[in-house]
Design a protein that fits this description.
Strand content: under 5%
Number of strands: 0
Order of helices and strands: HHHHHHHHHHHHH
Oligomer: single chain
Helix content: over 70%
Structural class: mainly alpha
């Protein structure tokens, strides 16, 4: 009994240390968002004298005409929302077809999607730009520096993991449900949207949250496709504009990071129970 209590005590201490290590960067961002630029560089660990500086910095960022944070917020929201919708739609339907089609070709395509999960993004980022330029040359459809290019790229990079998660979940759904609906005269589309999709709600939530956090915080892919100084830019690109070659406005950088974190933290807190439920369901079925 004592040995077990000691083990629990050690595990709790390790969990507490991991929690402190995880929360420390957020604490640094929070306290330095309420300071001036000089104070951030001279006394980064000191608690702020005036917490109302956070609101002043937020107003300064929101009204800064050079940064255009409002437009960046709208662009990030649009890109994230539309990307999540298309990822959920395409990956859930693709996984359903791959599960229900028992052929070598379907297994081959599923393994292709699984293999794509382990390919580093850095390997394909420059070929991706070449393909986008080639598509514009051949078809006239512009993908670089546009919303549609960003959404198409996120769809491509988000499909593999999402299909893998849906695939594991859909295998647990009894085939008899679909057979009964087919006997009643339901079409394939109606079976998916009225029977299968409602059952997939937990895994829908998991896919939306995991991909939403990634897309909202992503910096490298928007930098490659949208570029800096473009009319369309995301929040991470707008935050980077506070860092010049010679002067870095640390107070505004940290406040902008805090502003960017707030929506995704609220989103995560609202959906965290669905994440755990979806991950557990996908892992045991």
């Amino acid at each position: 009994m004592n040995k077990k209590s000691n083990q629990n005590y050690i595990l709790e201490c390790i969990a507490a240390l991991l929690f402190l290590a995880f929360i420390f960067p957020f604490f640094i961002v929070l306290i330095n968002s309420a300071k001036g630029s000089f104070e951030v560089t001279q006394q980064p660990m000191k608690l702020p004298d005036d917490w109302s500086m956070i609101l002043k910095n937020m107003v300064s960022i929101w009204t800064n005409p050079n940064i255009q944070y409002q437009n960046s917020f709208i662009s990030s929201s649009l890109i994230t929302a539309i990307s999540l919708v298309v990822i959920v739609m395409f990956s859930s339907q693709a996984a359903w077809v791959l599960v229900r089609t028992k052929t070598r070709i379907s297994r081959f395509f599923f393994f292709i999607f699984v293999a794509a999960m382990v390919i580093p993004f850095q390997i394909v980022m420059f070929p991706l730009l070449s393909w986008f330029r080639m598509i514009y040359t051949v078809t006239g459809i512009r993908l670089l520096r546009t919303y549609q290019g960003m959404i198409l790229a996120y769809l491509g990079f988000g499909l593999s993991l999402s299909i893998f998660m849906y695939h594991g979940f859909i295998k647990s759904i009894p085939l008899e449900l679909e057979e009964a609906a087919t006997i009643d005269g339901c079409s394939k589309a109606r079976i998916f949207f009225t029977i299968i999709s409602p059952i997939l709600k937990p895994i829908h939530a998991t896919v939306v949250v995991l991909n939403g956090i990634w897309i909202w915080n992503d910096y490298l892919l928007p930098l490659l496709i949208l570029g800096k100084g473009n009319r369309v830019q995301t929040i991470p690109l707008a935050v980077a504009n506070f860092a010049g070659a010679y002067v870095k406005q640390w107070d505004l950088i940290l406040t902008a990071i805090l502003m960017a974190m707030i929506p995704i933290i609220i989103f995560f807190l609202l959906a965290q129970k669905h994440i755990i439920r979806g991950m557990v369901a996908g892992s045991i079925k």
